[in-house]
Design brief:
The protein is an all-alpha fold. It is about 65% helix and about 0% strand. The protein contains six helices and no strands. The longest helix has 19 residues. The mean pLDDT is about 80.
Length: about 130
């Protein structure tokens, strides 16, 4: 890290299929061992499956799902560690649909964190 100059944040390039930086971020999270083409195939298959199930544009569904579970984005990293491509597509598409419908583990964790924050806020005026 340089001492004087600030580090410039590199902008994320949009993906070639959907022209969305969010899809590029998902691809980069799913990628393991530098195999970007495999990660692209997994994410694009999952997005196609989502568009078939919902009948909506897949990028809009993905954006809505990410907004729903914004504090908790670890679910993408958990699925990136699996090695089977077919199982990964199923789980990734199901997890995105669960987040869209406000169900599943990611939404439950977000709700738990919110409840704990509200409970701790009640005791914030005490001085220990």
């Amino acid at each position: 890290m340089p001492r004087r100059a600030e580090i410039q944040v590199r902008p994320v390039e949009p993906d070639p299929v959907y022209s969305s930086p969010l899809v590029t971020q998902v691809i980069n999270k799913v990628m393991s061992n530098g195999k970007k083409s495999t990660a692209e195939a997994i994410v694009y298959s999952a997005l196609e499956r989502i568009s078939e199930k919902t009948g909506k544009p897949p990028v809009e569904v993905l954006e809505q799902a990410v907004k729903t579970v914004t504090p908790v984005l670890r679910w993408l990293v958990d699925y990136a560690r699996q090695r089977r491509e077919k199982g990964m597509v199923d789980k990734l598409s199901n997890e995105i649909l669960d987040a869209l419908n406000q169900q599943g583990g990611a939404f439950k964790r977000k709700d738990d964190v919110y409840r704990m924050a509200q409970a701790n806020k009640a005791f914030a005026h005490y001085r220990w």
